[in-house]
Amino acid sequence: RLGWNNAWGNANDAEEGEPVKISQKKGLDCSGFVSWVFINAVQDTEAVRVIGNGSTAQWRFSTAIGWDEGRPGDLAFYYAPGERQYNHVGIIVSCDADGSYLVAHCSSVQDGVVVTDGWSNGFRYLRRPAFFQ
């Protein structure tokens, strides 16, 4: 796990089949999770230069797509920058037959990294990372 910080949880120590616990209180938040996933996908810490560090940068390093255009690897956001003081970001991992998206995101409310339905969990904006262009 390239770039893993053991303060985030037990991912490096978890045995096969054991749940991986990630602590948001120790520094891994939603945008950090997104950066970490892309870093590991390409096995290069320099990926953060293309995906961005922080939800505002991740928004800036991506382009808007329609709700019907999402695919795995695209980003889902709660808000557009400036709408609220904070934002939340996740990564689309799949699309159900009915067109709803499953989004992986680091949620302190749900105690770590979870995969949830995008729309019912508050995601309203989809963006394609410049990474894919």
Give a verbal description of the structure:
The protein is of the alpha+beta class. It is built from 3 helices and 6 strands, in the order H-H-H-E-E-E-E-E-E. The protein has helices at 30-42, 48-51, 55-60, and strands spanning 62-65, 75-77, 89-95, 101-107, 112-117, 125-129. A 6-stranded antiparallel beta sheet has the order 1-6-2-3-4-5. The longest helix is centred in the N-terminal third of the chain and has 13 residues, at 30-42. The radius of gyration is 14 Å and the shape is globular. 31% of the residues are buried.
Short description, anyone?
This protein is α+β, with helices and mostly antiparallel strands.
Element layout with pairings:
Layout: H1 30-42, H2 48-51, H3 55-60, E1 62-65, E2 75-77, E3 89-95, E4 101-107, E5 112-117, E6 125-129
Antiparallel strand pairs: 1-6, 2-3, 2-6, 3-4, 4-5
What is the alpha-carbon Rg in Å?
14 Å
Mean pLDDT: 84
Tally of helical segments: 3
Oligomer: single chain
Order of helices and strands: HHHEEEEEE
Helix content: 10-25%
Order of strands in the sheet with the most strands? Answer: 1-6-2-3-4-5
Number of strands: 6
Distance between the termini: 25 Å
